[in-house]
């Protein structure tokens, strides 16, 4: 059984009963165009609860709704003003990505990426009000952290030396830092509250319990298998999962790995945890899952079976059969040729030039073609790699001012 998942970050949750909501805006600027479909020099998008609600790119140059309720509830001037704001930020990013390239001593041979993300996360209280949990306002360059705002101290944090000039400049404008803090803790929360009211039907769905599975597959390490616990189909996303050995919870120190909580296509969620164990291990393993839809946690025992461990034996048998068949075919061919006088007993298998065929051991031209590596010229390879990387990270938001990053 194979499960295709998208990797997301997963944090340990203090409670499984809270309802967390988020609103984020993500902007990305590339230092130059890449010839890849759907990837533009500049993009901007709004995300509510990790679902896209609006979008803008440097080709169409228009902010558009990505949810029906956004189109229905928000007036035309909202989108017109949003378009002008996106155009302004597009120019801001174009200037600043060049400033950062100079500061980092980078040339325009490769594609470089400047990204900004800002937004807020709230917790829904029992009375329906929203409690501010945290705000995010951070920049990255080529996927690495460059600058981040600490809304507690109202100061910018510079993890790299190249960001220090920007930190000093922005911290010198206290009114800007006060505005940034106010946006994260108040204005962003107000917009999130309004959007939650608009998109109530789209974003609120019935709770559903998890379905839990335990299975194992052969590991890369010889003599070992990877035991996996999977819970899927649950909503909301807050969940608690453990792998237990003889009733004792295993931890990261025991080799437990997890991709965290992941979205399904139907707006429900899934989570997987796995651990590598010896193939001959006969201990008792079970999957423990707790979710607010359950009266009591689910515990599913692993049946001790491995999904694909027998495939190796099957492959060996198939290869042996094929070798025997080929040898029989070779012997038969030699006997026929000898009977027809094409070869004689004194010649050790030599064929006339007209009878030479591709050898059965796979060293002929056909095998050479099959094993020949696919190559790309250096330009296309660089473009593809850079484009793919930008596609994975094609998400950050712009600054709340027209001040440039440079001094």
From TrEMBL:
Signal peptide: 1-18
Transmembrane segments: 312-337
Pfam family, one: MHC_I
Domain Ig-like: 210-299
Region (Disordered): 377-407
Residue stretches of biased makeup (Low complexity): 377-390
SMART domains: IGc1 (SM00407)
GO biological process terms, semicolon-separated: immune response
Keyword field: Glycoprotein, Immunoglobulin domain, Membrane, Signal, Transmembrane, Transmembrane helix
Cellular component per GO, a single term: extracellular space
InterPro entries the UniProt entry points to: Ig-like_dom, Ig-like_dom_sf, Ig-like_fold, Ig/MHC_CS, Ig_C1-set, MHC_class-I_related, MHC_I-like_Ag-recog, MHC_I-like_Ag-recog_sf
PANTHER family per record: LOC571647 PROTEIN-RELATED (PTHR16675:SF193), MHC CLASS I-RELATED (PTHR16675)
Homology family: Belongs to the MHC class I family.
Protein name, per record: Major histocompatibility complex class I-related gene protein isoform X2
């Amino acid at each position: 059984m194979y499960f295709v998942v998208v990797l997301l970050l997963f944090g340990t949750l203090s409670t499984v009963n809270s309802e967390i909501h988020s609103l984020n805006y993500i902007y990305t600027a590339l230092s130059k165009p890449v010839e890849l479909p759907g990837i533009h020099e500049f993009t901007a998008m709004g995300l509510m609860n990790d679902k896209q609600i609006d979008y803008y790119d440097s080709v169409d140059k228009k902010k558009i709704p990505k949810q029906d309720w956004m189109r229905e509830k928000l007036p035309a001037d909202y989108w017109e003003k949003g378009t002008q704001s996106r155009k302004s930020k597009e120019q801001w990013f174009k200037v600043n990505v060049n400033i950062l390239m100079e500061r980092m001593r980078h040339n325009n041979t490769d594609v470089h990426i400047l990204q900004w993300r800002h937004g807020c996360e709230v917790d829904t209280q029992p009375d329906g009000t929203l409690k501010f949990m945290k705000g995010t306002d951070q920049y990255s360059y080529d996927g690495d952290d460059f600058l981040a705002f600490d809304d507690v101290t109202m100061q910018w944090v510079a993890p790299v030396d190249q960001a220090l000039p920007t930190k000093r400049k922005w911290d010198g404008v206290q009114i800007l830092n006060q505005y940034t803090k106010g946006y994260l803790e108040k204005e962003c929360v107000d917009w999130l509250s309004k959007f939650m009211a608009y998109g109530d039907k789209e974003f609120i769905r019935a709770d559903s319990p998890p379905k839990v599975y335990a299975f194992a597959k052969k590991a890369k390490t010889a003599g070992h298998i990877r035991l996996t616990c999977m819970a899927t189909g649950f909503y909301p996303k807050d969940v608690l999962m453990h792998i237990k050995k003889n009733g004792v919870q295993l931890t990261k120190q025991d080799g437990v790995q997890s991709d965290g909580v992941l979205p399904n296509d139907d707006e429900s969620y899934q989570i997987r945890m796995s651990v590598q164990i010896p193939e001959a291990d006969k201990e008792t393993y079970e999957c423990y899952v707790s979710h607010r839809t359950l009266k009591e946690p689910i515990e599913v025992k692993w049946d001790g079976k491995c999904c694909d461990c027998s495939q190796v034996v099957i492959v060996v048998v198939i290869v042996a059969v094929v070798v025997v068949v080929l040898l029989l075919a070779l012997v038969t061919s030699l006997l026929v040729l000898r009977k027809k006088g094409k070869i004689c007993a004194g010649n050790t298998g030599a064929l006339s030039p007209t009878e030479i065929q591709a050898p059965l051991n796979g060293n002929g031209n056909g095998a050479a073609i099959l094993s020949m590596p696919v190559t790309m010229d250096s330009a296309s390879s660089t473009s593809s790699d850079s484009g793919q990387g930008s596609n994975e990270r094609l998400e950050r938001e712009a600054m709340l001012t027209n001040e440039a990053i440079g001094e």
